[in-house]
Amino acid sequence: MNYTHMTLLAFIAKKLKATVKYVETRSENIASGTHNNERVFYVKVAANKEGVVKAIDVKAIDNCGAYPRYEPAGAVIWSQVTPGIYGVKNVRVRFVQVTTNKGPTGPVRGYSRLQHNFMWERVMDMLARRLGLDPAEVRLRNFIRKEEMPYKGPSYAIYDGGDYVGAFRKLLDALDYAKWRKEQEEARKTGRYIGIGFSSVIDSGANNFGQVKIINRDFPVSGNSEAAMVMVDQVGNIVARIGATDTGQSHATTMAQIVAEVFDVDPSEVQVEMGFDTLSGVWAQHSGAYASRSAVLAGSAIYMAAVRLRDKMIKIASHLLNESPSNLEVRGKRIVSKSSGKEVSFDRIATVAWSDVMFLPEGMEPGLVSHYVYRPDFIYNLPDEKNRINNTLTYSYTMHGTVVEVDPETMTVKILKHVVVSDPGVMINPLVVEGQELGATMHGISAALYEDLVYDAEGVLLSSTFYDYMPIGAKEMPTVELLHSVTRSTSSMLGVRGIGEGGGGPIGSIVNAVEDALTPLGLRLRRSHINSAELYGMLSSHPGGS
How far apart (Å, rounded) are the C-alpha atoms in residues 541 and 437? Predict the structure, then answer.
């Protein structure tokens, strides 16, 4: 993936045979940095009178902007989670991508899936309205059941466990759904517009690059390796390195905990270094922190490196103590005999391994360094006869419930309550997980209510400053109640799931809630962004509107 400015700079530098510097303004960045894919859906749904979806036919027209980068992969990556979290087996999707004079697109938190999740959640609400059913009940009737896990979807995705029904019922309880329905009814009698909306989203993580074969059959079908190194230095300090880099995800905290658990030490005693290069650092071909892969892949790599090193240290201790390895265990920075109580410190083992090498077991390589390149089990990741493939390892899901009030005078939206229930799998560090989930929630709320790229009829970007393009801040962020409904991942070594992106979770719940609030006015929403001026215009042009 490249930026046009980089290409242009290289071209100018080559022509001028001189160094060229590019200083980008905020307006230039907003106009030509990275936008999310704009997508229009045309959807047909076949359902029975109970609201159970039997089939769905989708045509998706994807606008990738002016300069394709990773495209057209962005148009098709959502095939990883084609049915969403609903048990729909009969699916037809036609992908179309166009280039336009709008800004170029690239991966954004929940790349390609947030539009897809929004489509499913709008379908569920529209179906409920058409049939006169409760939108919560329609979702409960369509969720994949936990007894079906691991669930193989129509695109060959294999969902790695979960209890969607249980998580959604937990959401309903935490949201006080029945109470808000009663309050909504009473509020309408006094001219107040309160609405309730849901979104139940899924986001694939730790991809294996299989999706790129959809656009180029000569591309590799797998790419899920990750590297790590764990070392005990000459004085017994534990040092770990991973190929993934940290951009605020607290990798050092998480990886230190994994290593610390293997060696039975406090995480503060593990020094974690991040990043890779092909000369001196640890790396695999696909090293990196993209695709919500760090805990799943880098975590597994560093765990295996730590276990391998621990086992070597136990063998050295066995030789020094004249004890069977099976009778030894790690306690703190010591290796202790479970029967005799004899022990040897990490310091002593490190001295022998690095310096006093004559005391090593016969044939053992000196040093205490363990390098491990992890690759997942690809038993379910090979294409079938129809070239279907399980594109990713983990499928984290999140349920959002939103209560809003819309001011009939200004059509501004206020979030009264927002509840999130997620399943991140095993939580290595709950605070880190919650930070990621709250960040994803904030990102989705901002997309639904604040951030909007507005063009005029000539294709000129009108919202090119932070005065016009307003990202959400702490002041605008509502209080969020965050809960968990944890099931262990069936495809991840550590039982964790990739949770960094969020799949645009709140977008669907907010739009559904706003439309629910405006039901007495007969307004129907089609966009994923709520614009008060646009709502006011819709109200004015609507029969009976003011």
Answer: 39
Cα separation values, 342 from 235, 309, 322, 336, 338, Å = 21, 21, 10, 6, 8
Structure tokens at 75: 């148009």
Does the predicted model carry a pTM greater than 0.90? Answer: yes
Among left, alpha and beta (phi > 0; psi -120 to 50; other), residue 238 is beta
Q: What angle do CA 311, 316, 318 make, to 5 degrees?
A: 90
- How far is the CA of 365 from the CAs of 239, 317, 325, 351, 492, in angstroms? 19, 15, 18, 14, 31
Q: What are the Cα distances from residue 503, in Å, to 143, 200, 214, 337?
A: 17, 10, 21, 49
Structure tokens at 280: 């001196």
CA distance 312 to 335: 12
**Beta strands 343-345 and 334-337, pairing class:** antiparallel
What is the C-alpha separation between 167 and 413, in angstroms, rounded?
Answer: 27
Task: Name the DSSP letter for residue 225.
Answer: -
Residues 101, 459: contact at Cβ < 8 Å? yes
Compute the distance between CA of residue 242 and CA of residue 30 in angstroms, rounded to an integer.
32
Query: What does the alpha-carbon distance between residue 331 and residue 356 come to, in Å, rounded to a whole number?
Result: 23
pLDDT in tens, 362-410: 999 999 999 999 988 766 666 677 767 787 889 999 999 999 999 999 9
